[in-house]
Amino acid sequence: MPGNEKLPFARPDLSDREFEAVRAVMESGWITSGPETDLFEKEFADFVGAADGAALNSATAALHLGLVALGIGPGDVVLVPAFTFTATAEVVSRTGAVPVLLDVDRKSYLLTPDIVAEFLRGCRGSDGKLTCDQGVVKAIICVHYGGRVCDLDGLFSLCQSHGLELLQDAAHSFPARDGAGYVGRRGPVTAFSFYATKNMTTGEGGMITGDRPELIEKIRRLRLHGIATPAHRRAGWHYDVVEQGYKYNLSDIASAIGRVQLQRSLEMWEKRKAIHERYQKAFSSVPGLRPCPEQTGSAHHLYTLEISGDSGLGRDEFVAEMEKRKVGTGLHFIPLYRMTYYQQKYGLDPNRFPGCEAIFASIVSLPIYSAMSESDCSRVIDAVLDSIAAVQRGPQG
Ligand SMILES: Cc1ncc(COP(=O)(O)O)c(C=O)c1O
Predict the structure, then answer these.
(1) What local confidence, expressed as pLDDT, does residue 339 receive?
(2) What is the DSSP code string of 86-119?
(3) Could you tell me the pTM of the whole model?
(4) What share of the chain has pLDDT > 70, as a percent?
(5) Cα distance between residue 278 and residue 329, in whole Å
(6) Which of 155, 209, 251, 271 could form a disulfide with 184 if both were Cys (CB 3.0 to 4.6 A apart)?
(7) Which of 6, 107, 129, 198 is catalytic?
(8) Which residues form ligand 1's pocket by a CB distance below 6 Å?
(9) Residue 311: is its pLDDT beyond 70?
(10) 218/293 Cα distance (integer angstroms)
């Protein structure tokens, strides 16, 4: 990207192969969900090592159908970190259940088993059920924020001892490794996003993977109106609706892009990793900057910096300086309890979320994507160091 144009915060990495794959599907005469989507979901599930997977039109749809298929609904409570995108909590209230927002760990920005355990200790137990003021606690949605994976061993074991389901919001976390394998292979529901800014994209799109094939089969039905057999697998005109469903399917055009992106995913991830490493090296010893928390196996979806008060500048001034240098930045996330809708509905006191508040006050996300060149990366580093210096000098400096 030439230095006089703004470097965007994110940009999809699409090669000739994606264009050719879309052309082939368009020429085939079948462009909605069909054979290409069947292949995409099989290849994706195989890649992460999951028993099965179903392609959907977003991660939001994946989380929503995951909750529906697990039978979560009115009277239930689902624990959700407050430091996330609204989709994670929105899907819970869509089922009629209540999302109870929890704080995150100040250092990793993740929901931890300790935070969940502390909440559960405050619940009342009877008939094998844990109840809090908002209802019966049924599930947790953990968010693998920025590409880093939550402590899954700890969370699964907590869920097992309290009879809860663990759903994983892995919108940021493909391909992320957790121990010996990829995120998506464990548990009943892992939701991935293929939104335009994500590590791999189909424009809009998502995937649910899980270790209970019957649950994924139900989701396959729910995603298309509860119809028993999808159009491309029917011999004749007859079809049956066996339950109330949704319109959450992914088209073959999107799946064609997804199949190529999946094949290129490790190569794209290597580039993100290299950018992450360059940033870490450049920012680790700069006073006033807290570089991105490290985790082996991260998908490196976000590169976050914390701009601490010691540097003599605030995050907002830093962002303004980056704008002057034509480098896009992002903010992940404004905690949910600060949003009008959540404030009006749940009226939560920010003081109950010291981790989220401290992170939110100082965090900013820098561009990190596989379509960035080495000189784009150098441009970001220079802009960060310059911006810090400019704000430290102050307006007159
Ligand atoms: C943490 C998180 N969860 C869920 C989503 C929703 O993903 P989608 O746009 O595919 O529905 C996003 C989107 O950015 C996200 O950041």
Answers:
(1) 98
(2) HHHHHHHHHTT-EEEEE---TTT-S--HHHHHHH
(3) 0.97
(4) 97
(5) 17
(6) 209
(7) 198
(8) 58-60, 84-85, 87-88, 143, 169, 171-172, 193, 195, 206
(9) no
(10) 38
Domains and their CATH numbers in the chain: 16-263 (3.40.640.10), 265-393 (3.90.1150.10)
- 181-210 tens-digit pLDDT: 999 999 999 999 999 999 999 999 999 999
- From 129-143, 222-236, 309-323, the region with the lowest mean pLDDT: 309-323
Q: Compute CA distances 169 → 87, 192, 303, whole Å.
A: 10, 7, 18
Q: Got the DSSP string for 321-339?
A: HHHHTTB--B-----GGGS
Which residue has a Cα nearest atom 7 of ligand 1? Answer: 59
* Strands annotated E in 82-212: 98-102, 124-126, 129-132, 135-143, 165-169, 177-178, 181-182, 189-193, 206-210
Query: Is 281 assigned a catalytic role?
Result: no
What percentage of residues in the chain have a pLDDT greater than 90?
91
User: What pLDDT is attached to residue 235?
Assistant: 85
Sign of CA dihedral 65, 67, 69, 75: negative
pLDDT of residue 395: 59
The encoded tokens of residue 262 equal 């999946």
Q: How far is the CA of 152 from the centre of ligand 1 (A)?
A: 20
The string of DSSP codes covering 259-308 is HHHHHTHHHHHHHHHHHHHHHHHHHTTSTTEE-PPP-TT-----EEEEE-
Residue carrying the six token digits 């029917």: 234
In whole angstroms, what is the distance from residue 277 CA to residue 316 CA? Answer: 25
Q: Is-contact 50 190, C-beta < 8 A?
A: yes
In single-letter form, the type of residue at position 368 comes to I
